[in-house]
Batch of 3 targets.
Target 1
Amino acid sequence: MENTQLQWIFEYIGFCPSCGVDIQPLCRSCAKFPSGVKVTYRAYSSDKAYEFHKTNDDELNVVSELTNVIVQPVAQPEHDIPEGMYILKSLPGNRLTANYQY
């Protein structure tokens, strides 16, 4: 996936009833998304996509592979990390961004 366009998803998730924009400090759950907005991204706009891979550098053999599209960053409940991010300073490193050039 050398040259792909990411689909960005901005979702307003709000605050719990006891928290709000002007209330500080936020509860533990709301502090994970202090702006009330969760940001996620994925490689394709469809839920499933075909990726094409070269099988050999010397030949023009191409193999297509059906892949499930994963929304990033994924939740890690064992570390109390929810799906999404609240501030976008840089893209988390993974196979989606490994070959991206500015």
Note: The longest strand covers residues 48-54.
Target 2
Amino acid sequence: MAKLTGGDWNVEEIKVDGVTYFMVVDEANRTIVDTCNSEVAEIHEEADEDGVCRWDEQGSVNCAAISALPQLLDLARAVIEHGDGPLRQAARRALSKAECEFTQEQIDRMKPGPGRDN
């Protein structure tokens, strides 16, 4: 079973066609996720005497949140271990969602076959 990419995650910039997009990278600078093809991108533009600057503001916010995931999961584990009541239950739900495992039915649906996009 795949595990979460280890180590700290950071946000880096990537330029595509004059627009700055964002990506989350691991400690070895390998891309975990990027916003280059995002359907929720919000391209902002500012112009001054030096030229025009365009960037994906929504991608910046989303990547910042994603990059915090390893620390947030550590926090959820600590709350489960040391907390109680509703906070502990909320931490269990969040951790369960983050550490998803595919059921056999989900795996079967991903396999190529009749009626499926191959």
Note: Residues 4 and 99 are 8 Å apart (CA to CA).
Target 3
Amino acid sequence: MLVEFVRDKNGHRVGVVVAVGWKIVGWSAYNTKVERMVGNKFDRKRAIDIAMGRANIGSDVRIPRHIQPIVDRMMDRSARYYWK
């Protein structure tokens, strides 16, 4: 499994993108506006679990614009890593 964390401009983790097979990619994003008001922090394990679920099952949720380039990069990376 390949894992890449998405970071904001301050270097804080705000998401994760995982690859589990040849061009099989999942992602998870942290809603910084809502979660920081409540006092929650980014949970690495939960984010990876959500991303793994989206990679294995699929999702109809639209990928956020700030994560799309990282997902594209992970697709290329997974194609090289899990080449057939």
Note: The two ends are 16 Å apart (CA to CA).
